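malate synthase structure dump, as promised
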Amino acid sequence: MNPNYKITTIESSEIKEIFSPQCLEFVVELHNLFNSKRNFLLEERQNIQKKIDSGWKPDFLEETRSVRESNWTILSTPDDLLDRRVEITGPPVRKMIINALNSGAKTFMADFEDSLSPTWKNITEGQYYLNLANKRAIDFTDSNSGKEYKLINNPAVLIVRPRGWHLPEKNFLINNEMTSGALFDFGVYFFNNYRTLLEDGTAPYFYLPKMENHREARLWSEIFKFTEEKFKIPKGIIKSTVLIETILAAFEMDEILYELRDNIVGLNCGRWDYIFSFIKRFRNNKNFLLPNRSLVSMRVHFMKSYSELLIQTCHKRRAHAIGGMAAQIPIKGDEEKNKKSLQKVYDDKL
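structure tokens r here:
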């Protein structure tokens, strides 16, 4: 083992193979190159919060006006990401992965972030099962019913959401320092899957959460470019979709697309965390109080403005504008409740 890092024990020998010395050394390299920049950007978040608490209000940046007003577009969108009409999301749990990939949705976002408790067991098993899914080797048998689950021939396109910049990984220490959960999730997934994905005619795709500004997008761009060069894969082959789910990022959508223009295909309205960000950022301003969450729909003025600006920005730059997640789920065994649940999804999307 490399004396510069320490990893918490992984009991399963099969899962342990995913976290090979070569894989972990790649994560160490990412950490050494980019973690100090991440820490600086996190400090900047605190400085901006102090400004807001003192009465400052965010606005479109004067220094990036030329980016917003000039004509440019993103590099390209691969064929298997052209249709994003229906996406499904859930944690990278074995049965969930199979059902989501078989669901008939166009893409499945395997989520290491909001929907997954980041225990070491969950993180390591998630990476293992995603690797099996990409190899078309994942299956599951329900111990109670005996029902078998296997992948269909043409499953949904897999997109992975790593953790946000603010979340650490305490089970992997580099020089006694916790690394970034985002760098860990990205590094492990990319290292173990890029060859299989490229051989299958696809590529590593990512959903990037919780960014606050274009400088944080620039850091992801630097990571993607470094990775493509290191592994000698085509420029721009790694693709991402950015969740616009913070109030500050909403003022920098053009800039975020521009920073990631070689490696991005779209923006997504992360509505629930956007509302949370609004509350958190303006916590000391009595003029920004919100009513009960059920009343803050996409028809509310500030939410409607945010979504319409995202659509306008994406279409101008030839990127996908993707609607936010509908949290309602089908209800088995109760036709009336299920009908109401699906109607809420329908109403939400219109």
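The chain has a mean pLDDT of 95.
lmk if u need the other ones
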